[in-house]
Design goal:
2 domains, signal, single chain, 15% strand, Serum Albumin, Chain A, Domain 1, 20 helices, 18 strands, Ntn_hydrolases_N, glutathione biosynthesis, 33% helix, hydrolase, 13-stranded antiparallel sheet, alpha+beta, three-stranded mixed sheet
Length: 613
Amino acid sequence: MPRPTALVASFALALALLGTSPGLDGAGAAPQPSADRSGAPPKAPTAVGRGGAVSSVDPYASRIGRNVLARGGNAVDAAVATAAALGVTEPYSAGIGGGGYFVFYNAKTGKVSTIDGRETAPAAMQPDAFIDPATGQPYPFSPDLVTSGVSVGVPGTPATWAKALRRWGSLSLRSALKPAARLARDGFVVDKTFRLQTKENAHRFRTFEPTFDLFLDDGLPVVGSLFRNPDLARTYERLGRRGTDWFYDGRLAAQIAATVQEPPLSGRTDLPAPPGSMTKADLADYRALLQAPTRVGYRGYDVYGMAPSSSGGTTVGESLNILEQFDLGAMPRRDVLHHYLEASALAFADRGEYVGDPAYVDVPTEHLLDDTFAKERACLIDPDTAATKPVPPGDVSSYDGVCGTAADGVAEPDTEGRSTTHLTTADRWGNVVAYTLTIEQTGGSGIVVPDRGFILNNELTDFSTVYDEDDPNRIQPGKRPRSSMSPTIVLRDGKPVLALGSPGGSTIITTVLQVLVNRLDLGMRLPRAVAAPRATQRNREAVTAEQAFIDRWGAVLEGYGHELVVAGPPGTSAAEIGAVAAIELGPRLRMTAVAEPTRRGGGSAYVVTPTYP
């Protein structure tokens, strides 16, 4: 793939990131916007230019990724460096205690590849792991089950970073982690989102001594104060020096397993924090998987996504195939939204029926993404009336594109946490990365590994709580729980034109889908497509929507029979749906990087060399 070819160039890049040449914001780098008065980097939701681009939810992370690009690194180098920085500034959403999905467009080969870095269940996990032995009933999902060792899956993020850098990067893991280690040691300025998320999880965090010590020892973090994490800085430095063997088969692996088996309780709360069964052998057996992406054609574009164990690629892809049966561009906006909501419900019905970890379940991916299957599913959309929800799944074993009669459906339980993060990078050679990573719930399991500075995930709660042998997402040892993460890259004539993704649990799928419809069908410019109010229909009786969407479209859509409910109380993280980070690529690799203008406190978009109209 295109990358710096001269040894001196690669050596200079490594030295720059290791801090032995002028600082990342010093001489030789492209001009940087000045920081605000708090010392934090400035936030800008849109940046236009050339030479490379980064979009994420956080200005520190985006700046680090942009600096990697400015020093000659490629999109993969920048993605790993940005992700590591998000582990510092967004510790409740991502980090090395979690997992994710990495989608990569290679400009040299013109191909899209993916890495499945999803967490796995321990080998000793039992089908009744989520059942309280004292009552015989499932643990209350939140906070009891989430805040536990039994919810922790074997992390996949370090293995994902190492695999991506080995296959496509130009930096070593040590060099890629160096800026984030420095950020953890020097600290970042606390914003309103970080304080709010800490406050919302304070009771859970008090349950574990190392978590309390890191995040609450001095009370709730104050907006404008500096938050440092020297333990995480040391962890990154050791991971860089020793490699992922230290994490998966060394002393850190043993410590992670011990922490899961015996959570470090503080005695400050009465949460039960049931222990997990993870062992060092589970960590040693973990592998991040290189696999083919999903692909659907949509109105002259090729849309690539993440195949199972994620349901993102199949559900976004099926929704697009259904919508392609209609001329959305000729419809009034209200009709487009009605069709978007109905297509989402149909695809979610099929997701619940068929999608799980393909190593354990025969997932009919080819059928779910078949145009004939989509045509038959589209028959069920009445242009004037919303279907009664939940709608039933289609029959992937028998379809011919001819309309049939709908049966009754069953709503799928939704236990996916909505706190995740996404980043998108592109470089001067045209390589592109869309990468979604997570620790699941805001604050994950709540368990900080002692003296290591990172939170362990609660991804295993993405399994169905009650075991059913016919459920594709049932608990099984070694299995990856189904995910909704939907990192997406769109090509036209073999060249990337758009890359995007979002956090948000199962609303990730509808968020990505809605932005694609806004951009590709409604012709909105990317900043508007991202900022537009959102609604999500996941085969539920009601449509969940942001208040601004209800204010604008609620009465109109109720006329079709849709019931709309607000996503969450104002001023809480639940009030918002998604937090998109996207990059659009134009002629001669002119890039438009776009992040959220307001959601989750507003994101941050950077380009290496800004240009202006």
